[in-house]
Every structure is written in C-alpha cells, then in structure tokens.
Amino acid sequence: MSQCPFLQLADFGLARAKSVPTKTYSNEVVTLWYRPPDVLLGSTEYSTQIDMWGVGCIMYEMISGRPLFPGATVEDELHLIFRTLGTPTESTWPGIATNEEFNQYNFNTYQGESLLARAPRLAHDSALGLLSKFLLYEAKKRISAATAMKHPFFESLGHSIHTLKDQESIFSCPGLVLTRDHNYKVTNGSQAKNRRQSMHF
C-alpha cells in the first residue's frame, strides 16, 4: 500500500501473515495495467517501489482521462510500456540485457514517445517531471511517496497538505474545491464531453 494524505492504494492479493518473514513473493501481483516492468519480467523481490509505478500510471490516467498502458496480456503490456517509454537498455535499466524473459520476447527497439504530446496537461504544474520519476525502469530509483509529496507539482495545494491525517480528506485543506474544467474536452465521434474534474484554489 502506498500511503500519502490524498491517495491510498491497496491490493490484498499480496497480503501475507505479518509473522512470516519473507522478501520473495509471486510475480502475479498488481492489476496488469499498473504492474511495473520489473515484475512483468519475473521479479519476485520487491517492496513499495512497485506501488510507485502504479501511482504514476494512475496519475497519468487522472490527468488525461485514459489509461496509460491498457495491455491485454503480459507481453502486450510490456510492448505498450516499451513503445511509450522506449525499449530499455543497459543505461536505462542495468542488467536488462541478461534478463532471460526480456530476451525471450525479442521486442522491437523503440525510441519512446512524447507523453506531453499524448497528454498536453502534463505541462502544467511540473506534472511531467513528477510522472517521469514514477515511471523509471530501475525500481530502486523510483521516487518514494514521501519525496513525491515534496515535489513542486503539489505546491499549489499549500502547506496544509502535509499535515493531513491518514483518514482526512484533501478537501479539508483551506480553499481547496473541486470544479469542472470546461476547457478540456475529449472527442468521441461527433460528440465532445467534458471529462476531467480539476482542483483549484
């Protein structure tokens, strides 16, 4: 579970008895669309870093109104990730060249796409900068929840965001309200509908 004042993710499929010490689990965890590439490629030793990848996927989905990596299978999921972020190399993911599962798939070499072109709203409030820190191939380099809360992306929420208790709503912060953003439209056929709810002071 990732814990911060306004977002909590829980997946009891990974639940274990607290009295049983272990660092090795199954790699069949986390809903496929939010599962990080290290787990998709067979890693069974992980910690909260796998949640931070999922937070990044959800962040993109909340901003753009659509999922980032909606794969149907593990191979499809990896293909979407690599096509979007670029096929990993030793410089972006040390050790990937010797990963047996990665080599078995024989993926094409992708340079990656611009997330900003796919979701222009990522340009606001340093969103793209924060998202890029969530979506790192090397798990140990992904930003933690505590560090993410100090990112400039959250400055507009004010300092009171850091004093919220676990069960308190973000909307208890002074001056924070949820309003419809009428400037953001998603076209579906001949119809355009407002899809995103934005927070403003």
Helix residue percentage: 25-40%
- The unreliable regions are 1-5, 16-27, 184-201
**SS-derived structural category:** alpha+beta
Q: What's the helix-strand series? A: EEHHHHHHHEEEE
Count of domains: 1
CATH topology group:
Transferase(Phosphotransferase), domain 1
The whole-angstrom Rg is 18 Å
Organism: Portunus trituberculatus (Swimming crab)
InterPro entries: CDK, Kinase-like_dom_sf, Prot_kinase_dom
Protein name: Cyclin-dependent kinase 17
Domain Protein kinase: 1-154
Give me the secondary-structure topology:
Layout: E1 2-4, E2 7-9, H1 37-40, H2 49-64, H3 74-85, H4 100-105, H5 115-118, H6 127-134, H7 145-148, E3 177-180, E4 185-188, E5 191-194, E6 197-200
Antiparallel strand pairs: 1-2, 3-6, 4-5
Helix pairs in contact: 2-6
Mind explaining what this structure looks like?
The protein is α+β, with helices and mostly antiparallel strands and 201 residues long. The protein has one domain: Transferase(Phosphotransferase) domain 1 (Transferase(Phosphotransferase), domain 1), CATH 1.10.510.10. Helix content is 27%, strand content 11%. The chain has seven helices and six strands, in the order ββαααααααββββ. It has helices at 37-40, 49-64, 74-85, 100-105, 115-118, 127-134, 145-148, and strands at 2-4, 7-9, 177-180, 185-188, 191-194, 197-200. The protein has a two-stranded antiparallel sheet with strand order 1-2. A two-stranded antiparallel ribbon has the order 3-6. A two-stranded antiparallel sheet has the order 4-5. Helix 2 (49-64) packs antiparallel against helix 6 (127-134). It is elongated, with a radius of gyration of 18 Å. It starts with a strand and ends with a strand.
